[in-house]
Amino acid sequence: MRVSLASFALLACVTSGNAAEWRVQPIDTPARVTAIETVDGQVRVNAGGLWYRVALQDHSATLSFFDRPARPKNPDDAVRDSRVATGTRDIARAWFSDATEAYDHGVLGDKIEAGALVIERRDGTKETVRLGADAVFEDIEPRLADLDGDGKDEIVVVKSYLKRGSALAVIAERKGKYEIVAETPPLGSPHQWLNPAGIGDFNADSRTDIALVRQPHVVGMLELWSWVGGSLRKTAELPDAANHIIGSRALNMSAAADFDGDKSLDLVVPSLDRSRLRFVSFVPAHEIASVALPDKAVTNLGLVAIENSPPAVVVGLADGTLVAVRRD
Questions:
Q1: pLDDT score of 184 more than 60
Q2: 250-275: string of b/e by CB count within 10 Å (b at 16+)?
Q3: Interior CA angle at 323 toward 322 and 327, to 5°?
Q4: Are 133 and 102 in contact (CB under 8 A)?
Q5: I need a labelling partner for 306 at 20 to 30 A (CA). Which of 21, 170, 212, 259 fits?
Q6: 290-316 tens-digit pLDDT
Q7: What is this structure's pTM?
């Protein structure tokens, strides 16, 4: 489906913030948009099976064809359709292994989850963290982040207990061995799931935080968990958020940047019904703006840089169109 740039207009309905500063900009595409990925910081849009780069200027948007390189072959023991995380610090790669059907949730499109995480160090040595029979990794790609500032990566994953639901878990090296060192309380019942939304210093206290959405399909509570003294502590929450669609493999329906110009990291995430994009600050926890979309968000969100302005957020909609939401 094509949307002409000639039809560009101020479509946003903003319920907070300055309405004149936000707009929704349609972007012309050669076919229906089905996916958005961010690779090495660059947004890639899939339209009609082909991949394109996005460029935005003051009042124009362009797509340029991108001959997407083939993904490196997954390790033989990686769970089918999972993704390998690559790092720049002590961890070179990490991936989920030991495929299992012990958990019958299927929130990510099938009922195959992981029973283990493989960590490959920079020197090529590998170590495996295996879960017990009471839990699985209900996740696709591990997240590498230096949570404590020691120059070494921790690993953030979704761990789901068969009888108690999901928890956010942190895996780190302790005395030369990787293990789960912290996790949030499980949500309480089977098939209750959470999805991480971002990692960074969101509340400007010089500590790393992990944002997540608790039960993004039915509850939609955006929570901020801070890494304090080697443990996770919930420091804020806001309702009305969703960063996943049941059965989808797209887990990145959120993005982090300084959207309001206060030099603190903010978060953007769809509303629970995915009809709006909500821009949120945690300094303190409040909504910067809520911007109505022409149709429901269905893809990952991507950030596109604009000179002398905060980045725009690009998203594919249920009707196959592509839009950029931007603050001037």
A1: yes
A2: bbbbbbbbebbeeebbbbbbbbbebb
A3: 160
A4: yes
A5: 212
A6: 999 999 999 999 999 988 889 999 999
A7: 0.93
